[in-house]
Amino acid sequence: MSLRMSFAVTFFLLSFSLSSLAQEAHVGNLTGNVKRGKALYQRYCIFCHGTYGDGRGESAPYLDPKPRDFTKATFKCRSTPSGSLPLDSDLYDTISRGIHATGMPSWKPLTRQERVDLVAYIKSFSPRFQEEKPATPVVIPPEPTTSPESVKRGAELFQTMNCWLCHGKEGRGNGPSASSLTDSKGNPITPFDLSSGAHFKCGDTDQGLFRDLTTGIDGTPMPSFSDALKPDQIWDVVHYIHTLRASNKSKPGQTQAEPKAE
Amino acid sequence: MLNNFGQTFKDNGYQLGNDRDSPIYHEPAYWPIMFRVTPQWHRESNDRVAVDKIPGDASSGLVESSISKSGFDLSSIDIVAAGTLSKNISFFVQPFINSGSTSIAQTWVRLDNLAGSRWLNLKMGKFELDEPISQERTLTLNNTGGSYYNYFFTPPGDNNFFTGIGGTQLGVELLGHSDNDYTRYSVAVLSSNNGQTGLPSNQTYDVYTNYTQGFEVPALGLQRVGVYGYFGKSPTYFQTSDGNPIPGSGTGNRSFYRAGAYGLWYVGKFDFSTFYMHGQDNVFLGNSVPANQPSKLPAGAAGPAWNGGFVEGHYDYNPRLILISRYELIRMSRQANPSIRGNSGNLDTWTVGYRWYPIMNPRAGLAWVQEYSRIVNAGTAPLSGKDDINNSFLMGFDFDF
């Protein structure tokens, strides 16, 4: 075999293996398999997310909000900064937890291996997962103790950072901008009603709320506040948001455990 | 059978648990109702039927002969409405229409997640028992092998009012399950009316219970095993008026039970259901003798007992094409009356078929079905006492909307 031929074969094999690796998924000690994930996707996900992962499944017209378009590789719930790809564990957590107040249920009835297989297949819909790597996850510092002062500071930030424009002065999701908001695909979108006591979309822990404020919720008008606010200030906002919840069932420091990538 | 996601959805009271389960969040035009029916062509044959030697001449004597019939036909029409009345209140209504008559297969309401716990869900009405492998969801439809014989078996000579765990029953059911549904339990208290409305039998109560545990096997995924039992009493005679039984006045209740274990196994594109049942009826039920007339029991009478089971395999070539096979058997281990042949009541059934879904979407489904089934009933030929064999072949469209 000539040197040129050997080089070509090596290059082909290397490209092939890199491509395969890019479409794998790793969560804990589990490795997702695209082929198995495809079979699962066709059984469970295709009706909403569509054959091509573009969110145009047969049920999509009846759903609000619309199913995620995986071809864009834009995901709401991430531990990585705004604009970055999510970690495999982020996708796994979303599949496991579901997204409250949407058509996306919890898929905990599937085995952990099956959920990781689905992550692998979902990643195959967008070339971004082969071309980019997820950014380093945001750091969540220890939560300071909540106090009236912390809540007061959070309330002030809620005003000065214009959170109220969308979420409303009392957090009811009825701010002056609420009716005109759209997501990244132009579909109308409603700001979260912080007073409802409903589960937050990306998890109900204080750490989850801190993360959402830090990373933003990509694909929606909810921006990242990582540049505008210091970590202590973000914690103040988290503490204030808790006071808006009608049932106040999720008090700081008493939140439910969020599913983690096992 | 349902996969684990479907089972979880059902056990959650047809709720996804995403704060959008109440009907107020549904499209106003959406009404959760569907129907299912199967236009079909089928052929039935029985190789040992007692027929007159000369048709129409009753004095010509009887001989055993093979009889077959075939033609286009229609199944009963199932109508199903199910969903939520409100968050954590579910309902199910299933009438069916068959040859001009209408019956209620199931009607129940269920309070879900009582006290905020998924371990407490209470259902009341007429419902399918929490069966190990659902009779209502069987993939086969033909006359001979369309249902599970173990679910409806009655021994020779027995007059138990209860006809089997495959029928829908009236009562209340408490069911609970873990977050991922790997662990499930149910306990039902049922009127001993065999699911018939109008209190036709006596006011005793039966108990059915089922416990299931799922577990993961590396490289294979979720597997499931469980145990179940139905324990009840049935009347052996009725109060009479001028010698005629008075409905609802059954008395002389005697006990019976059906119990066993099962497993649901998944190996790649194959899945297998394995099922075992042991059944036993009281001696008075088994011999159709009123409990207040023990002298009528034949010498050597005993409570009939039997064992049975089946293995059903599916190969999911893809979600739209499923190959099906099943073998089912029942073996009598003790006859009620010593004069009954030891193997009478034994049966063996083989079923093969496939379902192909050219259409499969969230609002409708259409399957092309072909099935063949054969049953051998031991020693039941009417004249010779030989084995009686029935064959069924069915093909048709099974569709719902």
Reported for the largest beta sheet of chain B, the result is: 16 strands, antiparallel, barrel
Order of helices and strands of chain A: HEEHHHHHHHHH
State the end-to-end distance of chain B.
20 Å
Which range does the strand content of chain B fall in?
A: over 45%
Radius of gyration of chain B equals 23 Å
What structural class should be given to the helix and strand makeup of chain B? mainly beta
Q: Indicate the CATH topology of chain B.
A: Porin
Q: State the total count of DSSP E strands of chain B.
A: 20
Describe this structure in words.
- The complex is a heterodimer of chains A (262) and B (401).
- By secondary structure, chain A is mainly α.
- Chain A folds into 2 domains: 113 residues, Orthogonal Bundle (Cytochrome Bc1 Complex, Chain D, domain 2); 97 residues, Cytochrome c-like domain (Cytochrome Bc1 Complex, Chain D, domain 2).
- Chain A is built from 10 helices and 2 strands.
- In chain A, strands 1-2 form a two-stranded antiparallel sheet.
- In chain A, a hairpin with a 2-residue loop joins β1 and β2.
- In chain A, α2 crosses α5 and α4 packs across α5.
- The longest helix of chain A has 20 residues.
- The N and C termini of chain A lie far apart (47 Å).
- Chain B has 2 helices and 20 strands.
- The model of chain B has no long low-confidence stretch (mean pLDDT 93).
- With 401 residues, chain B is an all-beta fold.
- Chain B has one domain: Beta Barrel (Porin).
- Chain B has a 16-stranded antiparallel beta barrel.
- The two termini of chain B are 20 Å apart.
- The interface between A and B is medium-sized, with 26 and 23 residues.
SSE diagram, text form:
The complex is a heterodimer of chains A (262) and B (401).
Chain A: H1 3-22, E1 25-27, E2 30-32, H2 34-44, H3 46-49, H4 88-97, H5 112-123, H6 128-131, H7 148-160, H8 163-167, H9 206-215, H10 231-244
Antiparallel strand pairs in A: 1-2
Helix pairs in contact in A: 2-5, 4-5, 7-10, 9-10
Chain B: H1 4-11, E1 33-37, E2 39-54, E3 57-74, E4 77-86, E5 89-98, E6 101-111, E7 121-128, E8 168-177, E9 183-191, E10 205-217, E11 221-234, E12 237-241, E13 244-251, E14 254-267, E15 270-281, H2 283-286, E16 305-318, E17 321-334, E18 347-361, E19 364-377, E20 388-400
Antiparallel strand pairs in B: 1-4, 1-20, 2-3, 2-20, 4-5, 5-6, 6-7, 7-8, 8-9, 9-10, 10-11, 11-14, 12-13, 14-15, 15-16, 16-17, 17-18, 18-19, 19-20
